Give the backbone structure.
Amino acid sequence: MQRNKLLLIFYGDDFTGSTDVMETLAINGIPTLLFLKTPTASEVENIQLKRRFGGSKLRAFGVAGIGRSLDPVAMQKELDPIFSALAKFPADYFLYKVCSTLDSAPHVGNIGTAMAVALKYFPSTQIPCIVGAPFLNRFVVFGNLFARLDNKTYRLDRHPVMSLHPVTPMQESDIGRHLSRQTDLKMKSVNLLQMQSGLQDAEVSDQTESDPKLIIFDTLSNDDLQFLGDHLYNSWQGGTQLVLGSSGASYGLAKYVLSQENIQEGENIGGAEIVSQIFVVSGSCSPVTERQIRYCLDLGFAGVRMDVIKLIARQQEYLLEVLEEVAEAFRSGRSAIVYTALGPSDPSIHQIQGMHEVNLNAVLGPGAAHLFAEMISRFGQIRCVVVGGDTSGYVSRQLGIYALEMLAPIAPGAPLCVAHATDVRFDGLEIALKGGQNGKDDYFEKILKGH
């Protein structure tokens, strides 16, 4: 059967997760670009890659979205025109990319809403659901989701960060039970024992049922991902197969294609140049980010706390105060990091948790974008980092960046990228969009060094 021109297209429900998919494909030799708005056919055909990992012709691309931060009505309005446009591209697979900690709830980031819209444009009798990403320390065992923090692995509903997430606290580790609160789709779990038997007894090959069904796969190791990549590739039946999952799904598929097509893994991938200063804005309350902030403060970074309550109350006036403090640090030759919290126990978390009437992402995101735009206007193209998936989405859109390409791998799921933008101030901007849980303590130092 003739394969499509493109291997994969994807929609990421937040920005940091979208760069994660791009990275897993690029480092495995699949030329990939991440668009920040839905591209036209001409844009995809004629785009000039700035870094050519795996070749000069796109084999995969995605659209970075903000679906995770939207209520179901807004989400449907956001996704319908994007999916309609993406369905016109000839691709073997469409991946609706979710976080490997499955950040979602009935009222925000509803995955059931996303699947209902996706099935209109990518009809599939079975929807493989591959959430685990062992290379990011996220595992699925007997249908339950686990995540490692430091040296300890937690069931997700007992995870010290995800169970206390300020927007989507995880209250259920069983993926099927968690998703059943968001969708009426039928579901089936395929566990490791069934996978070890070659899926012979898992009943995942029968695609004769008329009603779509989610097939939730266990993933304990990276080998499991490659096994599932094999399954995805060889069970393809034409058209565009809908897939629900994290970057584990793209990793598995890319690894399998790599093994079959004799692609040079990591071809032409190196580091970026060392720079003397970077500018970071963090909207994360993760303990991982907390350690990263404290590490760079010990290196001499200027730390500027951004009070979210003050930002809500007097946005423009308060942003100017923050901006002047950051600019003073840059003039003195220091890197700077603006942060809203130092870890999950920060007093600010308790202050904002009860503010249900305020869309915090819609306040913090534009505020962060304003800071980046003003700093670049004053100091030229500085290397930038945005921490927090929802914040990253707003920042990128407001800077007018229309596409990202991987520049250098820094930490799994959090590469340094180069921006494609119509505004010359931001075209070629080196920027990293990092999830709160990604990277080791020295992540920001590695951004400075470029590797």
The domain at 278-449 is CATH 3.40.980.20 (Molybdenum Cofactor Biosythetic Enzyme; Chain A). The first strand starts at residue 6 and ends at 12.
